[in-house]
Amino acid sequence: MHWTKVDVTGRILHLWFLGAILTNLLELYVKLGGLVLVGFILGRKLPVTVPTRLGQFLFWVGVPISIVSFLRQSSLSGQIWIAPAIAYLAILLGAFLAWLGIKGQAYFKKTVPQASTQASLILASMLGNTGYLGFPITLAIVGKEYFAWALFYDLLGSFPGTYGLGVLVAARFGGGVQNHWQTVKTILINPALWGFGFGLLFRQVTIPTVAEFWLEKFAWSGVALSLVLIGMRLALLKSWRSLPQAGMSLGIKMLLVPLILGSILPLFGITGPIAKVIVLQMAMPPAFATLVIAEIFNLDRDLAVTALAAGAIVLLVTLPVWLWLF
User: How far is it, in rounded angstroms, from Cα 191 to Cα 36?
Assistant: First the structure.
């Protein structure tokens, strides 16, 4: 076989590109995985109240301040409002595919899961961890310049979808108390949403360099603590009995939805790093909110727990796939 100079150069560039991807992934796994592992170890050693307190601190203080800081360094393009629209499409597509999966199981296997199991399966297929996990991964892979796209996707898309459509699904199938005002209240008092609004107003305000420096340091500390918290919560998850059904949810949430919607992003004029941000958010594993909703509405907790734990593991395999495709 005869190799031309162009062929050799192209092959060298291709190998260099693959090597760069593998190097970046290895660095990412060491950083993110190391923090999650630290949290996992601490979660096994510390009292169960510690993850709760840390979660409350991040919810009320850490995440809102991080949002304010990163918004000051992000680029807001005219198309950014497409991000939450795509988030709603991803949520609805995940729910629809899960519904089809349930109907297909009933047709081919002649078995119908219990209503509580159906609800948990649908929730795990439609709601992603676009905040505590999606934010750190987006920052690590794409950087701060396009972080606003991840924020818009999560705070104006995933979050209202979780406590809006997600709660409606749970109320339809579950047996918990249905307090719609409590749902509205949860959305309105969310500190991350208020931090998002304040961050948009605060973007053009000039502050001293020292204050800017410490604000950014605090923001990155919040990101690190979010990963530690994920490890702590994973340490408390012990059930794997519902792995087959959880596998269907993960296939929908982490493979089909990002593949289908990611392939049509150019139709919306979304390409390059922005497309990567959107795909990464769509490809995140099920959100911890699925377990919270399952507990409130008496759904299938085992399925919710298994989907959370397995999704975090599957992400290690799917992440390089999405980086290669997009």
Answer: 24
